[in-house]
Design a protein that fits this description.
This is BLUF domain-containing protein. By secondary structure, the chain is α+β, with helices and mostly antiparallel strands. The chain has a single domain, classed as Alpha-Beta Plaits (2-Layer Sandwich), CATH 3.30.70.100. 38% of the residues lie in helices and 24% in strands. It is built from five helices and five strands. Strands 4-1-3-2-5 form a five-stranded mixed beta sheet, with helices on both faces. β2 and β3 form a beta hairpin. α1 packs antiparallel against α5. The radius of gyration is 16 Å and the shape is globular. The relative contact order is 0.20.
Length: 171
C-alpha cells in the first residue's frame, strides 16, 4: 500500500478595516494580546498595522485556520467595513519568523496609507497589496533584529511570552 503525503495548503490574507475607537485605545492592546495567543495555538503568523482609523493586517498560515480566523475577525465589533485586499496561496514557511503577531503604527505614514487630502483612504490594488505584504514581512524581520521605538512593538529577539508579559504591563 502506497502512503500519500498529506499536504496542508497555506495562504496569506491582507485585509483593511476601520476601527471603532481612537488610536492607541486599550482595545488595540487587547486585539494584539488575543491575536498572539490564538495565532500561536493555530500556526498563524502576521502583522497588524494601525494608521489613523484603519487596521491593516496580514495573516499567514494553514488555509482552514486562516479562513476561520478571518471569518471571526469579520464580525468583531471593534472594527467595521472589513475589506479583504488579497487572499492567495503561500509557501509553508512564514515570512514573519516565529512571531504569531507583530504590531506597528509608524510604517503606515511612511507608505501613505492614511486618510488622503480628498478625505478618502488610498486604493489598494493587488500589486500594492503584494508590496505591503512584502513590506510587513521586512518590517517584522528588521524589528526582530533591531527593535522599534514604538512601545507596542517587539524588542529585538523578543519571544511571544515575554512580549505578552510586557504588553500586559502596558494595559
Amino acid at each position: 500500500m502506497r502512503m500519500e503525503r498529506l499536504v496542508i495548503p497555506y495562504i496569506q490574507v491582507l485585509y483593511r478595516s476601520l476601527a471603532c475607537h481612537e488610536d492607541f485605545h486599550p482595545s488595540d492592546l487587547d486585539i494584539l494580546r488575543r491575536s498572539i495567543k490564538f495565532n500561536a495555538a493555530h500556526g498563524i503568523t502576521g502583522l497588524l498595522l494601525r494608521i489613523d482609523e484603519q487596521f491593516f493586517q496580514v495573516l499567514h498560515g494553514p488555509e482552514a485556520e486562516v479562513d476561520a480566523l478571518v471569518a471571526r475577525i469579520a464580525v468583531d465589533p471593534r472594527h467595521k467595513y472589513m475589506e479583504v485586499l488579497l487572499r492567495e496561496e503561500a509557501p509553508v514557511e512564514t515570512p514573519f519568523g516565529n512571531w504569531s503577531m507583530a504590531y506597528d503604527a509608524l510604517m503606515g505614514f511612511e507608505q501613505n496609507l492614511g486618510l488622503q487630502d480628498d478625505g478618502h483612504y488610498p486604493e489598494i490594488t493587488p500589486v500594492r497589496a503584494h508590496d505591503l505584504i512584502a513590506l510587513f514581512a521586512k518590517t517584522s524581520t528588521s524589528v526582530d533584529a533591531y527593535g522599534s521605538a514604538f512601545p507596542y512593538s517587539r524588542f529585538p529577539g523578543e519571544e511571544d511570552g515575554a512580549y505578552l508579559e510586557r504588553l500586559d504591563g502596558l494595559a
